[in-house]
Specification:
The structure holds two protein chains of two kinds.
Chain A lengths: L2 H35 L2 E2 L9 E2 L3 H7 L2 H32 L6 H13 L2 H11 L5 H8 L11 H29 L3 H9 L4 H29 L3 H6 L11 H11 L3 H27 L1
Antiparallel strand pairs in A: 1-2
Chain B lengths: L1 H14 L14 E7 L3 H19 L2 E7 L1 H14 L5 E5 L3 H6 L7 H5 L15 E2 L2 E2 L2 E13 H6 L11 H11 L1 E3 L2 E4 L8 H13 L18 H12 L24 H4 L4 E5 L3 H7 L5 E4 L11 E11 L6 H12 L1 H11 L2 E2 L8 H4 L2 H9 L3 E2 L7 H16 L5 H18 L2
Parallel strand pairs in B: 1-2, 1-3, 11-13
Antiparallel strand pairs in B: 3-11, 4-5, 6-9, 6-10, 6-11, 6-12, 7-8
Helix pairs in contact in B: 2-13, 8-16, 16-17
Classes of the chains: A mainly alpha, B alpha+beta.
Chain lengths: ~290, ~425
Amino acid sequence: MRRAPDRRRLFGLLFVLPAALYVAIFQLGPVLYGLVLSFSRYSPLSREGAVFVGLDNYAALLDDPEFVQALLVTGRYVLQVLPFTVGIALGLALLAGKAFRGVGFFRTALYIPHIVSLTAVSMIWLWIYSEQGLVNDVLALLGLPEQRWLVSEDAALNAASAMRVWKALGSNMVLLLAGLHTVPRELYEAAKVDGAGRWARFRHVTLPGIRPILTYVVAMDVIYLAQGFPEIFVLTQGGPYGSTTTVNYLIYTEAFQYNEMGSASAMAFVLFAFIAGFTVLVIRGRKS
Amino acid sequence: MRTLFTAGLLALVLTACSSAAPSGGQPPGKLTVWFPGNSEAEMKLVKESIVPAFEKASGADVEVTYVDWAELSPKLNAAFAAGTAPDVIGHGVAATADLAANDRIEDLTPYVAKLEGRADLAAALPGGQVGGKQYIVPLIMTLRMIVYSGADFKAAGLDPEVPPETWQDVRAAAEKLTEREGDKIVKAGLVLPSNPIGIQQSYGTLLWSNGGEFLSPDGKKATLDTPQALASLEFFAGLYQGASAVDNTLGATWANSPPAEQPIVTGAAAMQLSNAGDIVKYQAAAPDRDLRLMPPPGFHGHGPRAFGGPANGLMINKDSRQKDTAWQFIAHMMGADTSLSYAEALGALPVRASSVDSPYIGQNAELRKAVEALPVNHANPNVPGWVRMRDAMGKSLEMALHGKLPAAEALKRATADVDKIIATGS
């Protein structure tokens, strides 16, 4: 009597095994190895292999002004992109939820940036932001002075942020649109009967109704934005003088320009801790 | 998580084969060669002419791989860690010191000693030495020279036949050549590369032609706290700051743009510090601008020096099992005709001084000036950790150019950063 369930379990395990092995070997393994490496000094050029240095790499980060600045830049980048990309996407989702002529085109047009590679998009925006680019042409038409978008300390991170807001809008809008469809119509009708206006319906029906998907959108945006790299690599290469160097860009230079894999791994785990902390805060905020 | 995954995966790939184990080149029989870049003309020449000729003469089987510059170091490092690095490595000179310090490349001094016609390579070979030993054999040369427009000179009342001879004269000419609309520069009198790496190279040209150096002769100390270093940086910053600024391209990355987009070609600038070998492309892109090369200037009281030297060259993997064949390939590349055709395909300056008499150089008077000026080339220090030093000092120099730090303070910071890198040995 017990043989059939055991065999089913065995077959189930066999079906899961390839995926489990993939995750263990190609995802979990490298992460664990990266953790080990973060306690080592290792250059791929060295013939000595990795040398255990304990917490030295982490201690050095505390005293590294470049890393501290990169953390601040990353934090600023996340915080100045997030409200716009979520807020505008929510507005667009509310608009795209209405039935009007061309709504399909509207949704598609907004989603297209999401399916184009971030590197390719960054190349296009590099031209848009150039001195003879589209943005300065528009400013000239309006009689405003042209700006040096990517080479000025004051403008570079804001320029990258604006591009990233545009890039993330489509996917956020689609997710929030799906969330809006899950809010029962009856609640709106009941609220209307009770005399609730548009704002009251949005605040007391829509927002609580989409809170789970909103939390997901914010958490995922935090995770992706905090790992900003391709746009920085293409648009500014971390400059001018480090003012757009995110932690991920610093990890890249540390690992591949300077061959310091141990220190780069330590940076990756500190960034991971910050991202995990932010994400927990977002999820807790939803529960409260 | 993606960051951790990426970092971990790369680390795993790099160390999977245990870097403690000796890494070997490819098995005997096939000579593997990596070239940097993606120039179609170069690839065609190497794969269709140079390599077949070498294979026919030597009987060797050569496998050439081109690796884009941006990916070259990561891929090469991973290959070293995995024991799959090629027998012959094409790379920039800046990579040599770290590879030599980690015992990854062969000392080519004994090979070079037997090379025929070494005197013809006198301007090229020293740039490929680390600690007095030859580790890389240069394939092409580069030299920063000022390209100027004869047409703009005439329009500004300057004689294009008598170009400025000192940096002070260059500055004075630049002020006459600069055109403004109100406060805005609409035509720069002089533009210098000022993107992150370009800043260090431009500053080097000014510093060396003012009698200064980045490091002490033994490479153990920064020497940026000198009056020459300060005067050079103040000169550089003065190009962008104040009412008499002459350059409006601070931070812009035009240096790597196509010839048709170069400020000197479009007419956005009247003088431009540039790679001298590019003059032919610039002239072809703007035949009406009468583009010429100015002999490298020095500051008053100092001889001319300019950033330059070997641009890239060939090394031999220390673990290669066919070093003699690898050297034969390098020697083949260094042959007078082969090296000249290689430089011509890339539009670069050749390594041999005798090529000044070749049709490629002889047909263009400006290119001839460039080859004749090669002896004043000055390469960056070839010491371990140089890339990190270059980036660190570049950041401080950039702050001075943007007016965020006084020049003296920027140099103080750069000195401290470089000394710290030297002290930690990374």
